[in-house]
Amino acid sequence: MDYKKFHLKRLKNELLNRNKLSDSSSNDYKYLDIVKSAVEDPVVYETFRNNPGYKDILEHIKKDLAYEYYKNLLKELSHEEIINYCSSIKNIGSPELVEINGASINPTSLRYLNVAIDIKNKFQNSSFENIVEIGAGYGGQAIILEKFFKIKNYYFIDLYDVNLLIKKFLNDHSLNFKAHFATLDSIENKKYDLIISNYAFSELPKNMQIEAINKIIKNSTNGYMLVNNFHKISFRYMSQKEYSKSIKNLKVHEEIPNSYLFNKLLTF
Questions:
Q1: Would you call 197 helix, strand, or coil by DSSP?
Q2: Which of 66, 77, 195, 254 has the most CB atoms around it within 10 Å of its CB?
Q3: Tens digits of per-residue pLDDT, 10-44?
Q4: Higher model confidence: residue 224 or residue 188?
Q5: Looking only at Cα atoms, what is the longest distance across the chain?
Q6: Contact between 183 and 158 (Cβ < 8 Å)
Q7: Which of 109, 129, 163 is the last residue of a domain?
């Protein structure tokens, strides 16, 4: 597959970093500069999802992986349902579209829909009124999740400037939940029905992973986290053993479809 793990590292090495940028390659692509410009400049906002610096972080899914998501979704949904759900995320920002069975679809929307369907299946008969997401991009996952759950409060945990972009993007959609925005430092002590993270938690440095566990994960009844860096031995990130010790009732699943050889899905 063309999808590469290092694309996501660029975002996660910047995520929740207390406003101190790392020396990751995302700095070379000026990811945060694009985010800030998209918030402030309507012209930049019109195409931000197709900007190379932003695209490498959050809009990099190639057609082969997009089609794998599509095929997996066909086990649960019709072609028309897939298109309708994906179209709930407006193509603001001019994201790349791929042609699948005669329809133009944004690949990232397919991933968000795949996650939502999997959550629905893995947590049957569960209600998620209060959801918290670590590393929310532009808010697309929340938009899709609302189609399946009656969400009252959605908490977005990301960099300050990224949160501003999420807020702007959400304002262009009709949503029923109340959106809350915070960084890892500023988030208040609350209880959550579900914590979700699409790769972001696993790319935080270990000290910040521990902080997120104490502030968020331990206050969450359920969890759904796609992770990389899930190794038996690790110094920069939590090891598999540390995950198991820190998170009660942890279950490890294969990622379906698999977007990278060593990615896993963690639930509790």
A1: strand
A2: 195
A3: 344 434 443 333 334 444 458 999 999 999 999 99
A4: 224
A5: 48
A6: yes
A7: 109
